[in-house]
Amino acid sequence: MTQEDYKVLYVDDEKVNLKIFELTFKKDYHIITCDDPQKALTILEEMGEMPVIITDQRMPHMTGVDLLEKSIAISPDSVRILLTAYSDTGDLLNAINKGKVFSYLVKPWEEVIVRTTLKEAFDKYFLIKENKRLVSELTEKVGELEETQQQLMETQDKLINQEKRVAIGNLAAGLSHEVKNQLIPISLLEFLRDEVSEDGIIIINQINESCNRIVDLIDEIRAISKGEEPNYSIQSMAVTKVIEESVYLSRLDPDVKPVHITLDHQYRGSVMMDKDKIIQVMLNLIRNAAHAVSKSDDPQITLKTERNGSFALLHIMDNGIGMGKDMLMKIWEPFFTTKGENGTGIGLDIVRRIVEGHKGTITCLSQPNEGTVFTFTLPLPNNELTR
Ligand SMILES: Nc1ncnc2c1ncn2[C@@H]1O[C@H](COP(=O)(O)OP(=O)(O)O)[C@@H](O)[C@H]1O
Ligand SMILES: [Mg+2]
């Protein structure tokens, strides 16, 4: 440490005192003197932090206690010492009680006592500094630690997800092979088509459809676990047509049937889409909404379209059970479901992939016990952009 680190500001209106103090201690300390408390504050502001401030109590215009009090805002870590006459004990007590003063010196001061006091003052000052440094180092370390922990948790989540995907992918691949083999004899039903009644044909059609759905479902699970992207055949198509077709199809679903669906077309133009894929998105979202309102007194689903710049917005709103923040973070994870055996947890993962495959985005807003809005965007065709 250099002498520069051992700065002492000494304030006294009697110039003789300043001179004596300076001459006595300048060998060991960097003494700065000042005969006016107001000027002393300016010096503090100009010099920045001052390790030790010693001031006489009785000065014209400003007392030593007032000066020390004002110095706190400018140089908070300073160690403050008051010089008093014996008769000033009232002021001294007041200053000590307010925590402004580290120590006091009685006038006229004795060199040995001042030396001891100065030494203690600097010990205290460097201790304050060291403490502050340690606290800030500690705060920084704690911050780093929290960040590391956060990263660790994220990595762990990803790993678990990855493991889940691989395990389910392997399972789905085996299952797919097995199920498809078992479906071969069922496909032989086609040969009976000419020999059965009209009712029989309806039954054969239903069986075929169910078989196709089983194969699709397993293929979808496999695609998800491998991270495969489906192929899209994207064309310009009226958004109302797709919505009405989705509503018609979802009405066949017994879970959706009892729910009142309202259409609110604010945009009726075309969008760029693979119709079958967007119907799949709508069916998934409508079905989820129907599940969410299943216990409502007045179950409502609203499908709304809007235009926003070069995109159409499609909203699927329900007044169902809604979701809290924690849940909203999880719903997009593949295989996350709150429906136990009745859910697969792949619906929203498929929905998100399809929407992103159309260069759109999907978001969800929800309030527990109030309802949920899923909103996805689809790009408009060029001929709509100029309208
Ligand atoms: N409209 C909604 N309202 C409340 N919760 C929803 C809604 N849509 C989805 N969820 C929640 O997200 C979860 C995941 O949905 P999804 O991926 O479609 O799988 P699944 O429907 O098979 O559970 C659901 O189990 C449900 O908890
Ligand atoms: Mg679902």
What labels would you give this structure?
alpha/beta, five-stranded mixed sheet, Heat Shock Protein 90, single chain, binds magnesium ion, 3 domains, binds adenosine-5'-diphosphate, Rossmann fold, about 375 residues
Instruction: Give the ordered list of helices and strands.
Output: EHEHEHEHEHHEHEEHEEHHEEH
Estimated share of beta-strand residues: 15-25%
CATH fold group of the largest domain? Heat Shock Protein 90
| Number of strand segments | 12
DSSP helix fraction: 40-55%
The low-confidence runs, each spanning 5 or more residues with pLDDT under 50, are none
> How many helices in DSSP terms?
11
Chain-averaged pLDDT? 89
- Please state the second-level CATH architecture of the largest domain: 2-Layer Sandwich
* Name of the CATH superfamily of the largest domain: Histidine kinase-like ATPase, C-terminal domain
Number of self-contained structural domains: 3
Q: Quickly name the level 1 CATH class of the largest domain.
A: Alpha Beta
Largest sheet: 5 strands, parallel
The secondary structure category is alpha/beta
What ions, cofactors and ligands are bound?
adenosine-5'-diphosphate, magnesium ion
How does this structure look, described?
With 387 residues, the protein is α/β, with parallel strands linked by helices. The protein has 3 domains: 107 residues, Rossmann fold; 71 residues; 151 residues, Heat Shock Protein 90, CATH 3.30.565. Helices cover 52% and strands 18% of the residues. It contains 11 helices and 12 strands. The strands form 3 sheets. It has a 5-stranded parallel sheet, sandwiched between helices. A 5-stranded mixed sheet has the order 7-9-10-12-11. Helix 7 crosses helix 8 and helix 8 packs antiparallel against helix 10. The radius of gyration is 40 Å and the shape is elongated. The two termini are 76 Å apart. It binds adenosine-5'-diphosphate (ADP) and magnesium ion (MG). Magnesium ion binds next to helix 8.
